[in-house]
């Protein structure tokens, strides 16, 4: 069963992962508000790390630094 929005190619770099995340910018403001835990208006490195961990654990994706 495919999870909606999860790429069939589940290996990518962090840069590719950040690009893939842009599809979840619901209001088109360049931000993913739900992932912005500190409400700074941007997804910082720590928040990206949390998203990477979620994607790897819960979505079965493999994300590498390069």
From TrEMBL:
Residues 17-34 form the EF-hand domain. InterPro entries: EF-hand-dom_pair, EF_hand_dom. SUPFAM superfamilies: EF-hand. One of its GO terms (molecular function) is calcium ion binding. It holds the Pfam family EF-hand_5. This is EF-hand domain-containing protein. It comes from Triticum turgidum subsp. durum. The lineage of its organism: Eukaryota, Viridiplantae, Streptophyta, Embryophyta, Tracheophyta.
